[in-house]
Amino acid sequence: MKVLIVGGGGREHAIAASVAKSKKVEKIYCAPGNAGIAELAECVDISVMEFDKMTAFAEKEKIDFTIIGPDDPLVAGIVDAFEAKGLRVFGPRKNAAIIEGSKAFSKDLMKKYNIPTAQYETFQSAEKAVEYLETSSFPIVLKADGLALGKGVLICNTKEEAIEGVKTLMLDKQFGSAGDKIVVEEFLAGREVSVLCFCDGSTVKPMTSAQDHKRAKDGDQGLNTGGMGTFSPSPFYTEEVKSFCEKYVYQASMDAMKAEGRAFTGILFVGLILTEQGPKVLEYNARFGDPETQVVLPRMKNDIIEVMEACVDGKLNELELEFDNNAAVCVVLASEGYPEAYEKGKVITGLEHFSDKEEYFVFHAGTKAAEEGIVTNGGRVLGVTALGQDLKDARKKAYQATDWIEFSNKYMRNDIGKAIDEA
């Protein structure tokens, strides 16, 4: 098969590494790709939002199967564009991707179908939102309704912070039109867990669990980022939690979308919080998480193309997902200053250390090839990932491997997976 992967980050590099292991695949293309993906695939200079160019390329090259990585093109309808040309594509259609594209939609869906989540109110007026805050208890959570690069969530500890947050989202438009509408919801305390699920519209097959670290600094301090590291599995995601979520969250979400005439095919990412009252849904995403994918896919035994084709063909019930009985930790190497201002173009050294090691991976996120070698080209630069017998072993190896790589203004958190040591 010829496979096209749409996207150019660490998630897409992890997907490409899994696709490269498939016995069914002869050639991989990636649009636009990055310097790391270029070692596995032919990179094509097409932006993820150029649907006409992307489908024309797929037709010209006779691509057998396309995998969509990022959220923006999914929410904008790239799957519909591919299907309109009769092309096989993995991902939810536009009417289903709204589950990530609108926080208000997903909250209303959960409320209607009794899927456990935080209590909330939705506002399109900053004035009305501030009025509501006058009678609220704190801390409280503000969420931009639309896509905001994974950063449109503000946890506000005081009324003053929350009022400032409303201004940031709705009046200053920090995330553009994503903040035209906001969701204000109760703050839930507990451990967070991420579970990615393969879906074929009716059947849902959850993958192994993971946990992301969103904050920029150690101890979960600093600004929200796209993710500074992950570990898998979560020791807090017990068999009891798993069986509850399979029935009342994952399958219930699938059934709800189907009942709404929005059958969901692709990856449903469920962000959970384990509260004293039981698991609740914090958010949905309509695609593989980044950097969750970097710890989940290296542990999967299945041929990823077989699973994705089963999703597209409505035959997911015919197979079982299998994962190695091991663990993975990913530490993101970022550019100092991320998620705000940072410099690009710094030469990266030490990547060759990963080429001959089976349990170590370096997934490229913000990199590009230049005359002087591979250079930094983004806030999150690389995802250094290691497999181990257990989480402590994987964590030790991942941090050891971060020492192999150097670039000026390299920054990372030093406590990814530290919760493991306390579990």
UniProtKB/TrEMBL annotation:
<dbReference type="GO" id="GO:0006189">
    <property type="term" value="P:'de novo' IMP biosynthetic process"/>
</dbReference>
<dbReference type="Pfam" id="PF01071">
    <property type="entry name" value="GARS_A"/>
</dbReference>
<dbReference type="GO" id="GO:0004637">
    <property type="term" value="F:phosphoribosylamine-glycine ligase activity"/>
</dbReference>
<dbReference type="Pfam" id="PF02843">
    <property type="entry name" value="GARS_C"/>
</dbReference>
<comment type="pathway">
    <text>Purine metabolism; IMP biosynthesis via de novo pathway; N(1)-(5-phospho-D-ribosyl)glycinamide from 5-phospho-alpha-D-ribose 1-diphosphate: step 2/2.</text>
</comment>
<dbReference type="InterPro" id="IPR016185">
    <property type="entry name" value="PreATP-grasp_dom_sf"/>
</dbReference>
<comment type="similarity">
    <text>Belongs to the GARS family.</text>
</comment>
<dbReference type="InterPro" id="IPR020560">
    <property type="entry name" value="PRibGlycinamide_synth_C-dom"/>
</dbReference>
<dbReference type="InterPro" id="IPR020559">
    <property type="entry name" value="PRibGlycinamide_synth_CS"/>
</dbReference>
<keyword id="KW-0464">Manganese</keyword>
<keyword id="KW-0436">Ligase</keyword>
<dbReference type="GO" id="GO:0046872">
    <property type="term" value="F:metal ion binding"/>
</dbReference>
<keyword id="KW-0479">Metal-binding</keyword>
<dbReference type="InterPro" id="IPR011761">
    <property type="entry name" value="ATP-grasp"/>
</dbReference>
<dbReference type="InterPro" id="IPR020562">
    <property type="entry name" value="PRibGlycinamide_synth_N"/>
</dbReference>
<keyword id="KW-0658">Purine biosynthesis</keyword>
<keyword id="KW-0547">Nucleotide-binding</keyword>
<feature type="domain" description="ATP-grasp">
    <location>
        <begin position="107"/>
        <end position="313"/>
    </location>
</feature>
<dbReference type="InterPro" id="IPR020561">
    <property type="entry name" value="PRibGlycinamid_synth_ATP-grasp"/>
</dbReference>
<dbReference type="GO" id="GO:0009113">
    <property type="term" value="P:purine nucleobase biosynthetic process"/>
</dbReference>
<dbReference type="InterPro" id="IPR037123">
    <property type="entry name" value="PRibGlycinamide_synth_C_sf"/>
</dbReference>
<dbReference type="Pfam" id="PF02844">
    <property type="entry name" value="GARS_N"/>
</dbReference>
<dbReference type="GO" id="GO:0005524">
    <property type="term" value="F:ATP binding"/>
</dbReference>
<dbReference type="InterPro" id="IPR013815">
    <property type="entry name" value="ATP_grasp_subdomain_1"/>
</dbReference>
<dbReference type="InterPro" id="IPR011054">
    <property type="entry name" value="Rudment_hybrid_motif"/>
</dbReference>
<dbReference type="InterPro" id="IPR000115">
    <property type="entry name" value="PRibGlycinamide_synth"/>
</dbReference>
<protein>
    <recommendedName>
        <fullName>Phosphoribosylamine--glycine ligase</fullName>
        <ecNumber>6.3.4.13</ecNumber>
    </recommendedName>
</protein>
<keyword id="KW-0067">ATP-binding</keyword>
